[in-house]
């Protein structure tokens, strides 16, 4: 398990503005404060090496894992860019994420940060291939939906379930799509996992993330963002296609 904290539901009035941010403003970060390293220590040297490796390794495909060091000073890391993000924009996001996380979580051996375009996490513990169910947060569109909310919730589940099947069948574990609602309304959705997960674990993670969108029932959109997967739905397109 990567971290042992969960993040409560966040209902933010600037939710819609986040789509115009481009990596400079993190969505959220978490620091695990029970285990520290010291400045100049072998762990810090290994962490700096790890972050440099991820900046070069991740952008070509949008995902990468790496480790640096050995024994008690070994550190493991992972970075993922949203499936539609270009290599150059992915590199920019991952490049920003490392220094930002070091600043926000000084001398912490375990930390994670999310942006619209990417996530980055590192840990003293090897976590590859394991679903991170504890570290997630939820954001809801502040506006209520102007149709029967029970039917709207069913449409969200239908779209995201279809995108889950599409994501786990593809090499990037990512899918984005839309569903017509009638009356010139279209629902847009996204599903994505970190690519260290198996298809089975990706589906398990996404099903849990979809279930968590119950917190946004009756709202025009919402997202569950986690350390291993994320889902989102909105009544407007929110990625580049």
Automatic annotation (TrEMBL):
Localization terms from the record: Secreted
One annotated Gene Ontology cellular component of this protein: extracellular region
Domain (Gnk2-homologous): residue spans on this chain: 25-127, 133-238
Chief site of localization: secreted
Signal peptide (residue range): 1-23
Keyword set, alphabetical order: Glycoprotein, Repeat, Secreted, Signal
Keyword Coiled coil listed: no
Domain of life of the native organism: Eukaryota
Name assigned to this protein: Gnk2-homologous domain-containing protein
Organism annotation: Eucalyptus globulus
């Amino acid at each position: 398990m990567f971290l042992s904290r969960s993040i409560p539901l966040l209902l933010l009035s600037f939710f819609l503005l986040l789509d115009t941010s481009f990596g400079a403003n993190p969505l959220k970060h978490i620091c695990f404060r029970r285990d520290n390293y010291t400045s100049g220590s072998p762990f810090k040297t290994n962490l700096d090496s790890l972050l440099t490796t991820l900046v070069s390794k991740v952008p070509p495909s949008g995902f990468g894992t790496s480790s640096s060091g050995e024994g008690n000073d070994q550190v493991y890391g992972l970075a993922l860019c949203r499936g539609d993000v270009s290599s150059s924009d992915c590199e920019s996001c991952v490049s920003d994420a490392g220094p930002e996380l070091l600043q926000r979580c000084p001398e912490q051996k375990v930390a994670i940060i999310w942006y619209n375009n990417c996530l980055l996490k590192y840990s003293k513990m090897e976590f590859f291939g394991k679903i991170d169910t504890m570290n997630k947060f939820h954001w809801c569109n502040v506006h209520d939906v102007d149709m029967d909310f029970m039917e709207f919730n069913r449409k969200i589940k239908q779209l995201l379930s279809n995108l889950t099947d599409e994501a786990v069948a593809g090499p990037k574990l990512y899918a984005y799509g839309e569903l017509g609602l009638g009356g010139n309304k279209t629902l847009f959705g996204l599903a994505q996992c970190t690519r260290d997960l198996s298809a089975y674990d990706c589906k398990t993670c996404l099903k849990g993330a979809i279930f968590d969108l119950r917190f946004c029932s009756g709202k025009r959109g919402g997202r569950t963002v986690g350390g291993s997967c994320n889902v989102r739905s909105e009544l407007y397109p929110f990625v580049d296609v």
